[in-house]
Amino acid sequence: MKLRLPGRRDSTPTTDAASDATSGDGDELTAQLLKAGGKGRPTPKRAEAQGRRQGPPPPPPTTRKEAYKRMREQQAARRAETRQGAARGDDAYLPARDRGPVRKLVRDVVDSRRNVGSLFLAVAAVALIGTFAPSLAVKTYSSFVLFGFFLVLIVDSVVLGRKIKSSVAARFPDSDHKMKGLVWYGISRSTMIRRWRFPKPEVPLGAQV
């Protein structure tokens, strides 16, 4: 029989206390291992991840010709990236006149309808050729066709302008916009052939915008 002196504590830890300490140490060790393995830190950005995958940077150029060649390659790559970003409508690559959700809405309104203005180049080319014809009748008909086309273009532009105003007012009612500038922006885009528009159309013909 073991006697315990009064006022003296047993220095030997109990089984439960030892188990708790072991469990706490194990949790701490697990957290440290997870952190060392890459968990518990923010996900790296895409550019940083691509940079790590590409490996170490290339050695510096040794000649002026090599440096100039490398500079031209980098400039060409940046221009290609800018063109691709602008073509898909990325605001980071677009000029100031094409940026913003309002301009994006105007482009969608124009691209969702068949515009008379998209025939402008074809009609103008035919009328121009007709003016050089030796026949007076052909010249007269060409002038009438061009004049009639301009009348139809004006009517279609008025309809397009009203649709742009109503769409912008419905989508962005609390914003103050210069409607004249937006309407002119849409009309100027409508006079281009659809496949030549830039940024490229993102909505099909007949889509509800």
Automatic annotation (TrEMBL):
Residues 12-24 have a biased composition (Low complexity). Residues 63-94 have a biased composition (Basic and acidic residues). The chain crosses the membrane at residues 116-137, 143-161. The keyword Transmembrane applies. Keywords: Membrane, Transmembrane, Transmembrane helix. Residues 1-94 are annotated as: Disordered. Pfam families: DUF3043. This is DUF3043 domain-containing protein. It comes from Blastococcus saxobsidens.
